[in-house]
Amino acid sequence: MSDERKSSPSPTLARRKKDELTAEERFFAASQWELMWRKFRKHKLALASGVVLIFLYAIAVTFEFWAPYGPISEQGLINMRPTRIHFRNEEGKFVGPFVYGIEQVVDMETFKRVPVEDKDVTYPIRFFVHAEPYKLWGLFETDRHFFGAGEGKVLLVGTDELGRDLFSRILAGSRISLSVGVVGVAISLVLGSFFGGIAGYYGSWADLIISRAIEFIGSIPNLPLWMLLASIIPLDWPVVRVYFMTTIIISLLTWVGLARVVRSLLLQLRTMDYVKAAQLAGASDMRLIIDHLLPGMLSYLIVQVTIAIPNTILAETALSFLGLGMRPPAVSWGVLLRAAQNVQNIVLRPWMLAPAIVVIVTIFVFNFVGDGLRDAADPYK
């Protein structure tokens, strides 16, 4: 009886082996997307960057709620430095976040506007306040803002030469700058998948012609050609038309990289045994592409798209910075950076460079996410 007890495994050990076996079975039965997600979760920097990226796009979609003021509302304080947020009153008692009343006076010696705080007037900073009315996406009218100080001025990044809140304008510019990257890469993906798919799947003379065209377009310097194409946009065009034309111009040169990726992937996948078996079974070309080839390269395309989006954002920022992309009254990060062309602004008003910091952070976030996805999609890692 005692020998039987020694030979029989304990219930805890048996349960543990069952759980390990179940986990192993789940690993081998996992789909390609589940395996990618498991690898991506191990890349902590990429995972944190993905959260930041989702947060940035959520703000871009609903920037009117997060911004304390409208992007074109003048606050009466020209080239104002960022206001100080206080938490303790003059007696040293903690009273919560507030700002003092502030006005600008002219220094008679330097003839510059100097901000002066009126410490007899305080404005507490509140959350979910009623302030300037707006229409969310032009559909829902409301006046609810994430934070505000009533009649006080909460200028987290200062103001520009017209007295407009730069923080609110940066949030407003995120909608155009971030969406240009997505829309531009979507157009590039369609063009690259179409021409790269034809070259990689059919080969022969189609591959020869398309490959030479890709090499020719890829050999042209991007920025000079973008400047040439953008310079033909009429100055009297409305903002929406300029937005789509700028996006198309950027997409005309960025699709060649995606086309190369699609072509090389199809050249590999079309020789696989399961593709040959589908061809022998009588599957049409369209069914082979949709049911067999496209799922095999979808993960790699997602990686390439993630890496291509920041390049498109940089292209729009560069064109708008040079005055050839988006133009006022449109608000984008490139338009806001045009104030940095003035050396005096950089020296005397360094807060004008705040949009550049946002662009740099966005590019780094996209690159980290792209690196994480690339490692997750690599079957040899």
Break the fold down into its secondary structure elements and pairings:
Layout: H1 2-7, H2 11-29, H3 32-42, H4 44-61, H5 63-66, E1 86-88, E2 94-106, E3 113-124, E4 126-136, E5 140-148, H6 166-202, H7 204-219, H8 222-230, H9 239-269, H10 273-280, H11 285-321, H12 333-337, H13 343-348, H14 354-377
Antiparallel strand pairs: 1-2, 2-3, 4-5
Helix pairs in contact: 3-14, 4-6, 4-14, 6-7, 6-9, 6-11, 7-9, 8-9, 9-11, 10-11, 11-14
What does this structure look like?
- The structure is a single chain.
- The protein is α+β, with helices and mostly antiparallel strands and 381 residues long.
- Helices cover 61% and strands 13% of the residues.
- It folds into 2 domains: 83-155, no CATH class; 168-377, MetI-like fold (Orthogonal Bundle).
- A 3-stranded antiparallel beta sheet has the order 1-2-3, with no helix packed on it.
- β1 (86-88) and β2 form a beta hairpin.
CATH architecture verdict of the largest domain:
Orthogonal Bundle
Biggest sheet layout: 3 strands, antiparallel
Strand content: 5-15%
- Low-pLDDT residue spans: 1-7
Total number of strands: 5
Query: In sequence order, what are the helices and strands, one letter per element?
Result: HHHHHEEEEEHHHHHHHHH
* Strand neighbour order, sheet with most strands: 1-2-3
SS-derived structural category? alpha+beta
Integer tally of domains: 2
